[in-house]
Amino acid sequence: MTMTEDRSARRLQATGTENALELRGISKLFGALRALEGIDLTVRPGERRAVLGSNGAGKTTLFNCITGDFLPTTGTIRFFGEDVTAFPAHERIRRGLRRTYQISLLFTGLSVIDNIYIACRGVSRGRFSFIRPRRDDALMASAETLVRVVHLEDLKDTLVSSLSYGQQRQLEIAMALAGAPRFILFDEPAAGLSPTERSELVEILLGLPSHMGYIIIEHDMDVALRVADFVTMMHNGRIFKEGKPAEIEEDPEVQTLYLGGGDDA
């Protein structure tokens, strides 16, 4: 176990038996548009959850409420037992919540390792220091570990602008792993990836430490069902169905909705 993984495990153990996420009665209105309505969701520590649904189902809005990009109109959000409903995004990050976005947010003019180092520095206590890091800098050691976790060690000195789209998605995952997070939200990480890149993504997600839970939004059911312990289906801003991956895959209503189309809000 690496130093980063050990620190994350200790933080997780310190929370006791609290659920990682508890959402109760979450609704989000944009004027007359009801993007989310009455969402109740519980995710255990270390659980890997897939949230599926067609475009407009409310998946990304749900993520934005969990991370603090949007505040819910009604309801409460608890993160490892603490009510974070009104917390801004940076306070949730300090408590160990991370996310990726549908569009990669990277420093394209810097190298892979520099991007990861900046992410590690950004969640550290010394993030505002102007002192140049030493060769034995602990944050650089963490960055070196993370570049291996996402299988980019051979490209660590390469400019991000030279990476393939799939490699940029791998880098974004590494940056989300900075600072020993307790829980991560992955927003469509397989979008636009080739079959080979999707296989690489699955391997990376399955290789994450068992104590590190996540929720993944994904249109590719082959990817989502391989990396999830439990699945939540959404439709028109509501939770439509939940179950194990095999149950969801074989459910005729899910097949009709997900593969056959159904109207979206």
CATH class designation of the largest domain: Alpha Beta
Helix and strand sequence: HEEEHEEHEHHHEHEHEEHH
Corresponding CATH architecture of the largest domain? 3-Layer(aba) Sandwich
Q: What value does the average pLDDT take?
A: 87
Give the structural class.
Answer: alpha/beta
CATH superfamily of the largest domain: P-loop containing nucleotide triphosphate hydrolases
Uncertain parts = 1-5, 11-15, 261-265
Major sheet attributes: 6 strands, mixed
Helix content: 25-40%
CATH fold category name of the largest domain: Rossmann fold
State the separation between the terminal residues, measured CA to CA: 45 Å
Choose one word for the global shape: globular
Total helical segments: 10
Q: Give the percentage of residues in beta strands.
A: 15-25%
> How many separate structural domains?
2
What gyration radius follows from the Cα positions, in whole Å? 18 Å
Strand sequence of the main sheet, in spatial order? 6-7-8-3-9-10
User: Count the strands?
Assistant: 10
Walk me through the structure.
- This protein has 265 residues and is α/β, with parallel strands linked by helices.
- It has 2 domains: 1-96 and 181-265, 3-Layer(aba) Sandwich (Rossmann fold); 107-179, no CATH class.
- It has 10 helices and 10 strands.
- The chain has a 6-stranded mixed beta sheet with strand order 6-7-8-3-9-10, sandwiched between helices.
- The longest helix has 12 residues, at 3-14.
- It is globular.
- Residues 1-5, 11-15 and 261-265 have low confidence and may be disordered.
